Amino acid sequence: MPELTSSYVDSLAPNTAAIKNGQGLVRKKSFIQLHRTENGELLFGQCAGSGKTPYECSADFVAPDSPVFRCSCPSRQFPCKHALGLLYAYVEGQTFTVAPVPEDIAAKREKAEKREENKVKQAAEGSTAKPKKVNKAALKKKITAQLEGLDLLEKLVLSLIRGGLSVIDAKTLKTVQEHVKQLGNYYLSGAQIELRRFALQLGKGEDREQGYTYAVQQLTRLHAFIKKGRSYLTARSEDPELALDHESTIDEWLGHAWQLTELKDYGLTAENTELLQLSFYSYDDQARQEFVDLGYWLELSSGAVHKTLQYRPYKAAKLMREEDSFFDVARVPLLYKYPGDMNARVRYEEMSPRPATAADLAQVQAYAHRSFAEAVKLVKNQLKNPLGDKQPVLLLHAASIGVNGQGEYVLSDESGVQLVLEDIPSLSQGTVGLLPYLPPVCFGKCSLLVMFEHQMDRGRLAAQPLSIIHAEGITRLL
């Protein structure tokens, strides 16, 4: 069984309400019985509910990286508050008496083992199977539709550029919004999201002029996508056997949802890695019409800063598990890496936690960029890609953090080069205003996770701190 901590149990919860309710069961002393097996792989017990019969709940760690939760309650949440409460009771040090595995759980374990054996057998048999053939007719039909969609999008973009943003009125915005809906019929979901983002920026009423700069940037992204997308689709149309582009994000722009098996086939995986989360926040992305849970993680073996993304569509958000901050080190047997440049997206199916140590923090410090000039060069190269992430994140080592003559907070590297910190407009949460309230340990030799953004209207590169890593831990500003 993995080492259970409050942070780990929090990470298993489907949402914050489940965390609160699970902890509430422990405070109310709702658990009538608390048991564990002699080897500690199974925790089980009874919890008083609203009826006469208590609920039977358990947490089975026979497979440590993928625990199984069971409960007799009717809840649709997984794991339910009773299973979470069982874990919180264990973390808080409550007494669990040693008892044998209940017969019903033993039977379920046996069935699960047989299912796993069948999966292994099927995988072994499938290893010699012929590769899946491409349905050339269906692919050609889809590509034809996508090319038609690109033509439609190009006409709209060129008309907006020729007419000028200042003359866009409610009627024009309505036309744009109609095109947003149409792009879904042409399998261009990525372009659909970016066009909706453009419409939202120009539809801010009295603040429209402040959005012109970002609107121009959106049109630039869409125009670049049209050119690259058309070239890529034409090549695929001529050669249906052509492999997906696993080095750039063009397929995602074209609506392809990468499957984990595809990432594995293209070698976009890493085995037995350890990740330390440096920053996390959730936000409402109206252009995607989804809530987004975004985490930035350091891969301790390579020093790469990755990101995890979970999208929760508005209609299904209540039924989906929310991600949250994670303070332990995640030990991942198999890490999947999506195509992309800096801060590429990663995903994993299984993980086990371990407490973060001083050695881990020292490793973070060692990986931080010590030259701001070189770091800024990396950021600028990333921003040159019109379809790349426009808010790249880097880990920087600061010899000191201070305030200049204009009252601005600045980072200084070991050679004396300074970097001014300021809040990025596109990030909904400001952090610079929190710096005066931080303890002195945050202002010595430390590392910062910094998000960059090119502000076209000011012609400068803005940098906003997300977290500060120092000898005593990680201070998260979001």
Give the key terms.
single chain; 478 residues; alpha+beta; six-stranded antiparallel sheet; five-stranded mixed sheet; 12 helices
Explain what this protein looks like in three dimensions.
This protein has 478 residues and is of the alpha+beta class. The chain folds into 4 domains: 6-116, no CATH class; 137-252; 258-356; 366-476, no CATH class. Helix content is 36%, strand content 24%. It contains 12 helices and 18 strands. It has helices at 6-12, 16-27, 81-91, 103-126, 136-163, 170-185, 189-202, 212-238, 250-253, 260-265, 358-367, 372-383, and strands at 31-36, 42-47, 55-60, 68-71, 97-98, 269-285, 290-299, 305-313, 329-337, 346-348, 352-354, 393-398, 400-403, 409-412, 418-420, 446-455, 460-470, 473-476. Strands 6, 7, 8, 9, 10 and 11 form a 6-stranded antiparallel sheet that branches. A 5-stranded mixed sheet has the order 4-3-2-1-5, covered by helices on one side. Strands 12-16-17-18 form a 4-stranded antiparallel sheet. α2 (16-27) packs across α3 (81-91). The mean pLDDT is 89.
